[in-house]
Amino acid sequence: MANEWRALERVGQSAGLSGESLEDYLDLAREVHREKLSECVGDYDFDSQYFVFLEQEVFPDERVTDKLHKLNAPQSFVDGLESKSYSIQDAYRTSTKVNYSLDELVDFIMLIKLVHDHPTSQGDGWIEPEDRLHYLLLLTNNELKNQKDYSAIQQSLGMGLLERTGYRYTFRKADSGPYSVLLSRDVDRMYAWNLFDKEIVENTNPNEFRPFRIQLGSSGKIFTTRFQSTLNSIDSLNSDLLREWAICQKDVLQRFGKMSTESLRDYVLSIDSYANKNDGDIILTGRTRIFDSNDAGPISTIAGGMQFA
């Protein structure tokens, strides 16, 4: 069941949808999906027959096919859904090109490194709940912000090293702690590319934490194996910007990686930049400088390996 939205999105993308049209389709598809789940309890073994359930119950539904017609999906595609002959599993497995700038890919690479290096990787591999990832990235950027950038000509933003390196994610104050919409979106993208796995965590109070957990996906594990040497040596690269970022991230994991999520949240909530803000206020602005090939150095080669997930 963890693959629910990803399969729905893959089919929408296969129909040629993107942007607002994709979101319009997804709103309806998720509604139909929830309805059919309730109706078909006991009819399918969702662990082994989930794609069969989608092919037989969700996508042939008249509301879904009518929506796709209105969004100008190819007639042959819609016909395949209506006749239940379209393979949802093939759409789900189709490789998706990771077509982003080097500046964005550097964030993805450092995210993969953090998940790979997190202490739970030595156990079951999960970072749980998803809020924990937001806390650790905020602390990494906060540590960079508190380090003076001696190589800068001038400190125009008062952000220390964070002006030139670190994650580009901006964090705001939310009920469950610091939260970045852009980070959450990127995690979902990496989930869609199989770089991350993401599951719903049962028995989690959604008013306290976001009920998801994250680990490296199949593509993420292949990626870290292929580039293990470079990933392990980022903190000693010739690139000053990447080296300082990696050192700060490593320090944060060593100090906070084994801390319980409750204690970690309490620590983050005690930081002045959080405690003195109102809900929705910006706690910490992300990196403003755009990375280019000169900044990224050897990691540019890794970014090339991400062009297909």
Report on the architecture of this protein.
By secondary structure, the protein is mostly helical. The protein has 2 domains: 4-93, no CATH class; 102-304, no CATH class. It is 54% helix and 6% strand. The protein contains 16 helices and 5 strands. The chain has helices at 4-14, 19-39, 46-58, 62-70, 75-82, 88-93, 102-117, 131-145, 181-192, 218-226, 228-232, 240-256, 261-270, 272-275, 293-296, 299-304; strands at 171-174, 177-179, 196-200, 212-216, 282-284. The chain has a 3-stranded antiparallel beta sheet with strand order 2-1-5. A hairpin with a 2-residue loop joins strand 1 and strand 2. Helix 1 (4-14) crosses helix 2 (19-39) and helix 2 (19-39) packs antiparallel against helix 4. The longest helix has 21 residues, at 19-39. It is globular and about 65 Å long. 37% of the residues are buried. The mean pLDDT is 82.
Write the layout of secondary structure elements.
Layout (H helix, E strand, L loop, with lengths): L3 H11 L4 H21 L6 H13 L3 H9 L4 H8 L5 H6 L8 H16 L13 H15 L25 E4 L2 E3 L1 H12 L3 E5 L11 E5 L1 H9 L1 H5 L7 H17 L4 H10 L1 H4 L6 E3 L8 H4 L2 H6 L5
Antiparallel strand pairs: 1-2, 1-5, 3-4
Helix pairs in contact: 1-2, 2-4, 4-5, 8-12, 8-13
